[in-house]
Specification:
mainly beta; Porin; 299 residues; twelve-stranded antiparallel beta barrel
């Protein structure tokens, strides 16, 4: 009789956990502007788990700020660490002069201080700039390290119907780069990013920001605006198409620059992604062409 009573008590105590095990995990996710593919991978894993009669712990899709100009409005999450890096090549021809620029490693280190705040260290790295004339003779060459940037990202809102998921990034530079690239002062950047999930596969995002610096001893600013469309092609392959513009104030560059670019992201694992991009400048003031590759790894 005692054994039967103990067995009945054990069954009653187990009923709440058994009932909870049949509930599906929270499948809500927020598609960012450069990595739409991971949501489909997540949905498939959840579905397979439910078919096996097991539940899984919900996890976040990889949230990368590269490879496009428009950064993600999503923060890393508490104590998550992410490294983003890559290489970019730019080419321009103007008045018979060919300019070729290489930039690497385009380092961005992100750490989640809280669920809504992340700390950021950004460094474009080593930049090589060479100019050649019509006879392919080198007439100028500049190279060296650029200034690093320190900042934070604050998530302002989550998407609710037409209210976008949004975030604010504030950063300041350390003027320690090579003489040819540093501004010799602490520059500041403010960037506001906002995005909407339209469907499970399609998202749109945009950013509005400003950069304050000096050029030849004179204060100047650059206002930027961007808009991007992201699309999940398969479970692992995503693509995007983007426009962004740069508008100078107090600078010898008196005409705005406009660019369009597109690229692909490929999700290798839950925490590893590779990317490729290609873009062109529209008006004459813009660089003619740029392309690059990179990767994202999260811990």
């Amino acid at each position: 009789m005692v054994r039967i009573t103990l067995l009945a008590v054990a069954i009653l105590l187990a009923l709440p956990s058994l009932a909870g095990a049949t509930e599906p995990p929270d499948a809500k996710w927020y598609l960012n502007d450069v990595d739409p593919a991971w949501a489909l991978v997540r949905a498939e894993l959840i579905q397979r788990s439910l078919i096996r009669g097991q539940s899984v712990e919900p996890f976040d899709p990889l949230k990368a700020d590269r490879p496009d100009f428009t950064e993600s409005p999503t923060t890393m999450g508490l104590r998550r660490l992410q490294l983003e890096a890559g290489w970019t090549y730019l080419h321009d021809t103007a008045e018979g002069i060919d300019t070729n620029v290489h930039v690497l490693p385009e380092l961005l280190l992100r750490f989640g201080l809280t669920e809504r705040i992340e700390l950021r260290l950004a460094w474009s790295g080593y930049e090589s700039h060479k100019e050649t004339d019509a006879n392919a003779i080198e007439i100028a060459s500049y190279e060296g390290g650029t200034d690093p940037w320190f900042g934070c990202k604050l998530q302002v809102s989550k998407q609710q119907v037409w209210l976008p998921e949004s975030a604010m990034i504030v950063s300041a530079s350390a003027p320690v780069g090579a003489r040819v690239w540093t501004s010799d002062r602490v520059d500041t950047v403010v960037n506001y990013i906002y995005a909407w999930d339209l469907t499970d596969r399609l998202s749109v995002a945009a950013s509005t920001g400003a950069w304050w610096t000096e050029q030849n001893g004179d204060a100047m600013s650059v206002i930027h605006q961007s808009a991007v469309v992201g699309l999940a092609l398969t479970e692992r392959l995503g693509t995007y198409f983007e426009w962004f513009g740069l508008f100078y104030h107090g600078s010898p560059v008196d005409r705005p620059e406009h660019y369009v670019n597109g690229g692909f992201t490929f999700l290798v694992t839950e925490n590893l992604q590779f990317d490729w991009r290609l873009g062109v400048g529209l008006p004459e003031a813009s660089d003619d062409l740029f392309t690059g590759v990179g990767f994202v790894i999260r811990w």
